[in-house]
């Protein structure tokens, strides 16, 4: 019975994550089922139950959305986990100084989820990332940065259990991935050379929590011509400086909380 209950919780979590990754667009039942690896009847049953609790809403013509209770729960949780208010200036600075699209992403288990986006002045955009989208660690630049700066044992354990090549191609096999991670550990920042979408490059630097663990990342993405070898060190420096600023603000907030 306990195992069955845990399975239901895991399924509910998968459904809610699918809706949260939709950038506010309604998601049809069939797509929820596919993304959450459920049968369509099971997905519909869970969605209906969640709607009764206010955790999801239904647009009769288009699909399902997160509901008002999800907003309330998120608002309460934000008091403890959200760093958007501390990092928003840093995201804007990355966009302003580089001219590229800038992002804040957070680690959630074996994934990263994009929390904030700010457009830079350069007119050509990369549309790979948006608020709510999730990627496995080691795929997008934010997840690469976080994985690179994780403790060696934790990093190796993830690489041993993760299968990234099936969904993301041979460039994400353990050999090439380890090379990118090692390069990031040398420079402090990561370069993702169009491995998600051809021609769309990204760079990122990890943000560390008060315990010294990489929990978030700042990233910049844009077209390939904007991320040449001559420009990468400058973008990397900007990302590292802004990531350090956010880390300092986190430490100051933690210190202030301890003195209350």
CA radius of gyration is 19 Å
Beta-strand portion reads 15-25%
CATH superfamily of the largest domain: GAF domain
Under CATH, the topology of the largest domain can be stated as: Beta-Lactamase
* Shape designation: globular
Q: Uncertain runs with pLDDT below 50, 5 residues or more?
A: none
Query: Helical residue percent?
Result: 40-55%
CATH classification, class level of the largest domain: Alpha Beta
User: How many helices does DSSP assign?
Assistant: 10
Could you spell the SSE succession in H and E letters? HHHEEHHEEEHHHHEEEH
Instruction: Return the average pLDDT rounded to an integer.
Output: 88
The strand order across the widest sheet is 5-4-3-8-7-6
| Number of domain units | 2
Q: Structural class of the helices, strands and pairings?
A: alpha+beta
Describe the structure concisely.
The chain has 260 residues and is an alpha+beta fold. It is built from ten helices and eight strands. It has two domains: 2-73, Orthogonal Bundle (Arc Repressor Mutant, subunit A), CATH 1.10.10.10; 82-258, Beta-Lactamase.
Describe this structure in words.
With 260 residues, the protein is an alpha+beta fold. Helix content is 50%, strand content 21%. The chain is globular and about 55 Å long.
Please describe the structure with a list of short key phrases separated by commas or semicolons.
single chain, 260 residues, alpha+beta, Arc Repressor Mutant, subunit A, Beta-Lactamase, 2 domains, six-stranded antiparallel sheet, two-stranded antiparallel ribbon, 10 helices, 50% helix, globular
